[in-house]
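Tokens for chain A. Residues wanted.
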């Protein structure tokens, strides 16, 4: 395999190391395109170029591996490579989730592989399993801790009684967090990964704006204490599940903090580890756990994709094709249900901060001069008022 690589940051360097230790895979990186010409590099400078056409124009490459930070630029690179008939491996969940439909169509049109195991769950082989292993299984749900940074912050806040900001800095220096950590803590990264798992679990292409994501950016130590007193933990979870009768059911898909009980398989998934629980009609519940972020774990998932290309692997998109044949078009949201009630814990300072949330009934209420919270049944749809809202200081957690 001759590889043209875009990006030599945390994951790119991880791939380089993992590739150097791999046994059996004959693969070499021919050229690496990077943005910053002044950054010192750990390997020979002859590998590098700053001109993307130098890599995209090569006709001896078996695969383009895209591992850059900028999702718009990544989309341009990936679509150009695919249009040129070159297989692509990427770990760019934002780029994939935001452009899924057109990337899917490009794969079909050019009969080309675009594979992306490293984009969700880090080192956990979840996408290929959802696609292949559960291809005939009636999957009813997935729920996963999909963001290593959030889980790392939540774990250390709880175990070390530390505050949020100090730990976020550690997550950044450990290479877990995105260069824009808002994507992690406000739940966008979990949302993008949830979009990808929805394609491979249920055959539905959803746009990130159709799905609710709430994050942990406003969490305080009071929330951790509330959970601890009740024997619960707070986990940032992306979930998708079927509701209603088989054959005419709908799907609920969202990403937000959840309280989990000690018996929950996700309760003991700590630090930067991810965990995904999948439930099928016959297989029942199965949980996959592994490192969800970091240079080598993600590099190993990328390497596994490169290796899969040696036996001409590509996603079959069997569920997506089945749903498309039922609907007569690519399914993109008709089966999504955002119209239901959900029980949540809402912590706020001032009632005005939660005026847009439609509260149906309050089960528990606490007032003090420092903070207030309620546990209430609310209209799920109304929580969209808090999605990506950088002004809001409200913390919401599913009960
Ligand atoms: N920032 C991401 C995370 C990296 O923390 O999970 C891995 O996708």
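Reply:
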């Amino acid at each position: 395999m001759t590889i043209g690589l875009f990006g030599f940051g945390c994951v790119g360097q991880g791939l380089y190391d993992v590739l150097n230790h791999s046994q059996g895979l004959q693969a070499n990186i021919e050229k690496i395109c990077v943005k910053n010409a002044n950054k010192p590099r750990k390997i020979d400078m002859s590998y590098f170029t700053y001109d993307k056409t130098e890599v995209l124009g090569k006709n001896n490459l078996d695969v383009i591996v895209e591992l850059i930070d900028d999702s718009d630029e990544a989309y341009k690179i990936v679509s150009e490579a695919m249009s040129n008939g070159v297989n692509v491996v990427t770990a760019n969940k934002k780029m994939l989730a935001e452009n899924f439909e057109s990337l899917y169509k490009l794969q079909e049109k050019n009969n080309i592989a675009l594979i992306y195991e490293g984009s969700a769950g880090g080192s956990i082989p979840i996408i290929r399993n959802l696609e292949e292993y559960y291809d005939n299984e009636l999957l009813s749900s997935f729920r996963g801790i999909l963001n290593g940074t959030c889980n790392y912050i939540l774990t250390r806040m709880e175990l070390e009684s530390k505050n949020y900001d100090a730990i976020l800095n550690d997550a950044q220096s450990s290479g877990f967090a995105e260069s824009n950590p808002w994507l992690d803590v406000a739940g966008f990264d979990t949302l993008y990964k949830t979009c990808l798992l929805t394609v491979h679990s249920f055959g539905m292409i959803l746009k990130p704006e159709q799905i609710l994501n709430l994050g942990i950016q406003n969490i305080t130590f009071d929330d951790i204490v509330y959970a601890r007193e009740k024997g619960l933990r707070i986990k940032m979870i992306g979930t998708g599940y079927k509701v209603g009768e088989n054959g005419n059911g709908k799907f609920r898909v969202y990403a937000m903090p959840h309280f989990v009980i000690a018996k929950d398989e996700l309760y003991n998934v700590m630090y930067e580890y991810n965990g995904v629980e999948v439930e099928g009609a016959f297989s029942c519940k199965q949980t996959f756990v592994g490192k969800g972020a970091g240079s080598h774990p993600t590099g190993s998932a990328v390497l596994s994709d490169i290796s899969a290309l040696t036996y001409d692997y590509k996603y079959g998109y069997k569920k997506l094709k089945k749903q498309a044949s039922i609907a007569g078009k690519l399914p993109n949201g008709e089966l999504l249900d955002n119209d239901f009630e959900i029980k949540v814990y809402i912590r706020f300072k001032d009632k005005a901060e939660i005026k847009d949330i439609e509260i149906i009934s309050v089960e528990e209420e606490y007032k003090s001069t420092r903070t207030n919270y309620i546990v209430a049944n609310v209209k799920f749809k109304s929580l969209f008022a808090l999605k990506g809202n950088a002004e809001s200081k409200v913390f919401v957690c599913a009960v």
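The chain has three domains: 2-129+296-327, 134-292+331-336, 339-399. The mean pLDDT is 95.
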